[in-house]
Input
Amino acid sequence: MDEQSPQVADPLVGRAVRLFEFLGRAQQLRNSPPRTVDGYRSVLWFDGLPDHPAVVSAHRGDPEPDADVLTVERVTRHDPPPADELTPWVGDPHDPETTPRLADDAPAELTEQYVTWLVAWRTWANRERVERPVRACYAQLFAAYVAASGNPEELELVVGVGCLAWEGPGVRRHLLTAPVGIRFDDDSGKLTVHRLDSVATADVELDMLDPGLVPNPRHVNEIRAAARELDTHPLHRKETGALARRLMHALDPNGEYRDDDAPPVPQQNAVAAYAPAVILRRRSQQGIVEIFTTIVDQLGEDGVVPDGLRPLVDPDHRPRHDTGEPGEGALVEVDGDAFLPLPVNETQLRIVRQVDTQAQTLVQGPPGTGKTHTAAALLSHLLAQGKRVLVTAHTDRALREVRDKLPTEFKPLSVAVVGSSREDMSDLKVAVERIAATATDHDDDAAADTIRRCLATIERLGLRRAELHDELVAVRRDEVRVHEHAGYSGTLAAIALRLRQQEPRFGWLRDHADVASDAAPPLATEEVVEWQGFLTDEALLADEAQARLRLVELGTPPAPQVFTEFVDVERAAAETEARHADLKQHPAFEAVRAIDAGARAQLRRRLSELADEADDLARRRETWMAEALADIRTGRARLWHARAQQISQLTVPAGELVARLGPLTEVTADGNLDVLVAHAEHLSAYLTTNTIRTGSDGSPKIGALTPKPVKQAQVFFENVRVNGLPPTDRQRVDEFRGWARLHKLLGALDRAWPGGVPLLPTDPPLERLAWHTTELDQLHRVLRLGEALETEQRRFAEAGLPRADWTDLDSVRRYANLVDVAAAVDAHVTATLPLRRLESAVSTVAGRADAAPCVPALLAAVRDRDPSAYATAYQRLTRLVTVRTRLARRDALASVVPPRLRAAVQANPAAWGERLARFGDAWTWASVGTWVESRDTADVNAVQAEITLTEERIRREVETLAATRAWRHAVSPDRLTGQARANLEHYAYLVRRLGKGTGKYAPQRRAEVRTAMDRCRSAVPVWIMPVYRIAEQLQIRRDMFDVVIVDEASQAGLEATFLQYLAPRMVVIGDDKQVSPTAVGVDQQRLRDLASQYLGDDPYRSAWQDPQRSLFDEAKMRYRGLLTLTEHRRCVPEIIGFSNRVAYEPDGIRLQAVRQYGADRLDPIRAVHVGGTVEGTTNKVNAAEVAAVVEQLEKCLADPRYDGKTFGVISLLGGAQAKAIERRLLERVAPEDWAARKLQCGDSADFQGAERDVMFLSMVAGAADRVVPLTREMYVQRYNVAASRARDQMWVFHSIPLAALSNQEDMRFQLLDHCYGVMSADRAEGMLASAVPPDVRVEPFDSLFEQRVANRLVGLGYAVTPSFTVERLRLDLVVVGAASRLAVLCEGDTWEGAPAYERDLATQRDLERCGWRLHRIRESAFYANETRTMAALLARLRALGITPKGAPGLYPE
Output
């Protein structure tokens, strides 16, 4: 609160005071107390109670304080004995006061029968005369019970004592009253008038007297206090009578008090009598007046207008917004979604959030849209924030279920004062006891641990929920994206559909093989065809038996041509060996044969090569060759090695010089070469740094100045020419020097060869050097031959071979031929060996008993060396081996063929050719089918079920969290002051002391407990009570609550404005399309006068003085924003459709009916034309409609289809019709049925906030009446309320035919037109009558997939409605059962993206919260495995009790 300083007067206080003074005076205009008991609804005087065992009254004796006031047993009505044949002659026998007489003209033979019957009748009459008053008393009391329980906000029950009758003031009323209630026993029908727990035992009532007739108010107040503290029963004659006597004498000293049960007759002086009575009367509004007085006083004392109240006197003021974060409460965000202890829809969540941040919240709550649930959810949140809350409404009906809807742990924090009692002491007792116990035992650390644990659990569950949600989205995304697998491309559904279309071609494989999604074919198509060919090969099958016998391995016997070669080779080897018979006598033969064939071949090669080399060298013409060969063969090769080395050393430098001089350098020299070389040496040194002058011919110029070295070399210049010129430069000098050295080297080479050389010294150096090089090469050949002979000799020695005569080359060659002889002998042996081996191998097999016939034949051919016979046997063997190979191939292929397929093909191979020719394609088809099915491993319905379960677990944790926070706030030191804790402890002590409630002082102790409990009220955070109870229950003070929630605010008049004084925050819930306050009994001119007097400066005075203006109207004008609840849960769609039509759709609002129902339901609307007329002008009654309603209601009571259903009756025109129907029903309907069916009769206002299963509406207006169109807003409100009370069925009885109503805006026309429109509509409208084309899309389907699923369901006999729209979601298919429905969502391969899908998931969660059951079918799963997919759907249908057509009442014949 923004409080003003005490020194500064708030200028708005005066305006606020005048406003509440006006409201108080206006309320007094409505509160005109009756002066006599004649103004009461019903009075049951105790002096008239029958003296019968069924009637027990507390006034007859001294009752205990807790004794019941009155009990009346139900006495069954008995019919008189049947008259049978006497009936025409005795008249009506039902009047016990009139004895039936036998008619004078009756047959004489009936006289005796009459006498006998009359005896029985008199017995009945005597009993009836005694019991009839009891039934009359019971009927009156039951009627009071019905009225009081149906309208507790308007009517109250009291027991009155001390009836004052005074002629002067015209008064005849009781002075003392005590609140009572009537309890109805469902089993026995007994009615019990009982005391209600109340702080005051009795109240003194003097409001029927003018204040001037109370001469001593102080004395009267003392008596009033004594009455309140009375510790005896209100009907204790002595104690209560004494108070009545004192009161009477305080009013009139000359008056008289009589201790008499009969009510007194008014006289000139006051007279009072004990005269107890049970009274049903209109509830006094004096408490509201007192509230206004209290507020006026407090405003004057405080000098401050509370912030929440300021907008009423300052239109520009806006209550303070809460700009901070709302306190921790029951609202928990999990992954962007809000969770409360109770599930809420989007609008309800917005309401909770707005209350957190706004001081004023306005909610439009059309019928059945969950206002009570909204209030309960909001209460849970506010309690968890530690708020004190008042929930109120104009009537009890709107509040009856608020506390019951609270989660269990929250209930003890609230007290609901609703119903016929002035306060529900049991709720208060539970609350106080629980709060007291919790305050004592509370462990704040433990509570903090619980909160942390809950938050951790919520976080963990939230992560799991997110995982599941992501899994759903991933599955959906997987369904719509394009896949590539084994050559198939497209969405899963497209691939599955293609597979389904290919099933006639490839489906055979699935019946005979289990194919994994990633399995390659076990065989190629060619191999499968090959295998099938083996199975159909007759020749193969014919040879299979012999092929199974023992055979020689085909690699063992050679081919016939090879065998022929073996025979030929053996014969040729034998012949060759015979040709070399002489060499076999050579001494070295055996030694040569002893070495291996490889070594022999090398030996032969080496000997031949050596002999050939020696022969080749011997044929050369070199003079030295013969000598050299002789020396080499005889071991004298050393000299020749030295010579070769010397020649090699000379040829190398000679070759270098030849290369340096080249072929173009020509040198000539005359004279001693050594002298010339010496000159050249000196001259070369000189020319290193000098040059020689030459003449034109190239000769040096020699003169006196010529250097000495030049002069000394003159002889050199004269005798040496290089290329024809004297060598006068260093190059030519050096060329000469090289030539001279080459000349010496060549000379040395010439001398190195024995026998001389054929060349001359004058030959060109290059030729001379080439000759020497060639000769040297030949010498090296000779030397290598010698080395080879030495090497071979060593090998001979190592091999043990005799020494060869190297000087006799023929001998050497014969030695080499020994190798050939040994090879011929070995070849003969070798050539025989394969045939011997073959014979051995074949004979091993041929000797076996199970040998194939061709094997012995083959052996004989081998032994006989008969190629022709061998070829025949071999050919047969080859065939059998081939057969065996093919059989092995066949069996090998068969071993990898899937077993079931193998068995099927082997049973009839010829029939499988065409199918097996497509084996590869079929295998791919099957593997892709398995792959598609493997993509369906995530059961989306199971995932969704787990999400639902997880969310429920989150909600339970949120409930525990919120409850812990709420109780932590409730018992915190800030909430429970020292005095509050003392009050709680004192109450607990008094309860313990009371014990079982027996003993002498029990009544006083019970009174002390009640008083102590009353002091504990401040500890209770939530109070739920109608407006008229607030004055009785609470001591009014400003901002005593944090939040006030007003329900059904459209029924509350402006007198409820005071609620804004009680809290800084207001939540106003109402609906201006429902019944508003009435102006009945209000003097509107006096009201305008009061407004002029008190509100002259108020710009909205005209609104304040309107008696029909509601609190909702006021809030709508002053509050910002309007949140509208549209989720309708009460009525079936056909019923609430009328409200949409006349009240909401014109304003752009549509109530979404989310109530679940099945096909086996009552007809939602039944209109009955009666044709009656109206009696009366003011209190109009249509007797024909009365009779029709009563008759139909009785039929419904007897109809098993209506078992357990509740009934209500509404008169659409005035209350007289409703009372007439009620009176008739009270006579016809047993009390236990009345109570069990919650039967109530009234007008629209009486039923606002209530509901019944079946409603009966009486239009009242007669067929002959002048039709005045009902088009005003008040009629829209009345009809809207009346037509939205029925959950299952609404009956409308009317006398005016629809055709007689010409004004289509008339509510009667609108209602009848709607009713007959619904009745004429086909209940099965929208359902599929038969299957639709599976391959051509038809309306209203969105896809062929939907049509195919629908066809499967229709084919199974289910009732299917396609394209069913609810909320913002289109349900693809709805399967309707007798008592429930299942929505089938056909998830195809198209979507609008993840965000849109997530929105759909959120809407689907809302539908599930509303009771819808959803089942998802993925298109790919349906096409991939329709049987499994449909089995899952059918199992779900069975679980919900949805059966195919033929269920009782579902599809009539």
Notes: The two ends are 71 Å apart (CA to CA). Residues 1128-1155+1164-1320 form a domain with the Rossmann fold fold (CATH 3.40.50.300). The CA atoms of residues 514 and 1339 lie 40 Å apart.
